[in-house]
Design goal:
Elements: E1 2-7, H1 12-15, H2 29-44, E2 51-54, H3 58-70, E3 78-80, H4 97-104, H5 106-114, H6 151-171, E4 176-180, H7 182-193, E5 211-215, E6 221-226
Parallel strand pairs: 1-4, 2-3, 2-4
Antiparallel strand pairs: 1-5, 5-6
Helix pairs in contact: 2-3, 4-5, 6-7
Bound molecules: 3-phosphoglyceric acid (3PG).
3-phosphoglyceric acid binds next to α7.
Length: 228
Amino acid sequence: MKLVLIRHGQSEWNKRNLFTGWHDVELSEQGVAEAKQAGTLIKEANITFDHAFTSVLKRAVHTLNDVLAESNQDWLPVTKSWRLNERHYGALQGLNKEETAVKYGADKVLQWRRSYDVLPPLMLQTDPNHPSQDRRYQAIDQRMLPSGENLKVTLERVLPYWTDAIAPALLQGENVIVAAHGNSLRALIKYLENISDDDIMAVELPTGTPLVYELAADLTVTNKYYLT
Ligand SMILES: O=C(O)[C@H](O)COP(=O)(O)O
């Protein structure tokens, strides 16, 4: 069976080079075009799905909608979960990445962005943008609400969703698409390909580009390629 991972198309905040995390921004015009193109590529490759998964953030949800529309699979059952959200970027959310590098140093910012286990600076629970203020997240155990996540913490909350929701669909022989985010997908890729904590630092995912995994019956990866 096939597992297709797709990072959302370019968002308005990708375009402005802002740390985004759980902030809910729309796709840019270019991002919509990328999502539609991804759908066309999936159609041309004759890939059909049995189930789709996405996050509760509109840049991923809308990317999935465009992909399904362009590949004529609008009818597909879709399941959304906060566990597929982008990593929470803590107090960095809304800041410009380049300006932050000038202020705190490029090395520090690289560490915040790509190290496996360094946490970004904390977002306080009293912040009006903290997820505890958002209806979508009220069902989450308050102790799990992040104040800033590194890739390790992101993997720890993505993995139960893989095990409980995505893997069971694949194990039934279903083809699955997951439309999510740069870092929630990097976490999944680290797990799927057994990539080390050091090597995952260099793994980057382009926006709006379907990544196809062909999986054996036990879900080991037998082949991997981008549709471009
Ligand atoms: O949340 C963000 O800012 C981006 O979607 C991913 O950012 P990164 O490339 O800094 O991890």
